[in-house]
Specification:
Elements lengths: L14 H15 L6 H8 L3 H7 L3 H24 L5 H14 L3 H10 L3 H24 L4 H20 L6 H16 L1
C-alpha cells in the first residue's frame, strides 16, 4: 500500500498481444488505424506500453507484416501437411481460400499500395504461395511448365475472389473447388 491506498499494477501487454490486436484492427479498419495512441486507447493501456516493445511505428509495422506473412502463408502451408497427398492438400487449400472472407488479405494489399514494406511483403507472399501451389502440382505429376502456369491461374482465381469480396459456401464452393482442381490437376 502506498499512502493508505492499494497500489494497482498497470496492465502489461506482450509484443505478441499488440501484434495480434493490430492484425484484427487492420482487417476491420485498414492500416490507417495502426497508430500507437489509437491502439493504446483501445487496449486501455498507456502509449508507453507500445514503446516498451517497439522502437517506433516502423518497427511495429514490420512485426505486424511479418506476423501476417507467417500466419497467412507459412502457417497455412504447414497446416496442409496433414492432408497427405498433393491432391488432398490442394483441395484443402482451395476450400480454405474460397471459404473465408479474406478481409485481412484485402487490407494488407491496400496497405501495400502506399507502404513499401507492405508491398515487398505482399510480393514475397505472392511468390511463396505460387511456388507452393506449383510444387503441389509437380508432386502430383504435372510437368514443370504446366505446373507453373496452372499455379498462377489458381492463384489469380483466389486473388480475384478475394478482391471481389467473394465468399463461397455449400454446393457453390464444392463445384468451384472441383473445377479449380480439374484445372490444376488436369
Amino acid at each position: 500500500m502506498l499512502y493508505g491506498h492499494a497500489m494497482t499494477t498497470p496492465k502489461r501487454l506482450s509484443a505478441d498481444a499488440w501484434i495480434d490486436f493490430a492484425l484484427n484492427v487492420l482487417a476491420r479498419e485498414g492500416a490507417e488505424a495502426l497508430k500507437a495512441e489509437v491502439l493504446a486507447r483501445r487496449l486501455k493501456v498507456s502509449r508507453g506500453s507500445f514503446y516498451w516493445h517497439f522502437a517506433d511505428r516502423d518497427a511495429f509495422h514490420a512485426r505486424v507484416i511479418a506476423r501476417w506473412r507467417e500466419t497467412m502463408t507459412e502457417g497455412v502451408i504447414a497446416s496442409l501437411a496433414r492432408h497427405g497427398t498433393p491432391a488432398r492438400r490442394l483441395d484443402a487449400l482451395l476450400g480454405r481460400a474460397f471459404r473465408h472472407r479474406n478481409r485481412l488479405e484485402l487490407r494488407m494489399r491496400g496497405w501495400a499500395d502506399h507502404n513499401a514494406a507492405a508491398a515487398r511483403a505482399v510480393r514475397a507472399v505472392d511468390r511463396r504461395r505460387c511456388r507452393y501451389i506449383e510444387a503441389l502440382l509437380r508432386e502430383a505429376g504435372i510437368a514443370p511448365a504446366r505446373a507453373a502456369t496452372r499455379a498462377q491461374l489458381l492463384y489469380w482465381a483466389y486473388l480475384g475472389a478475394a478482391l471481389g469480396h467473394s465468399q463461397l459456401a455449400g454446393a457453390q464452393l464444392e463445384r468451384s473447388v472441383k473445377e479449380l482442381m480439374r484445372i490444376g490437376l488436369g
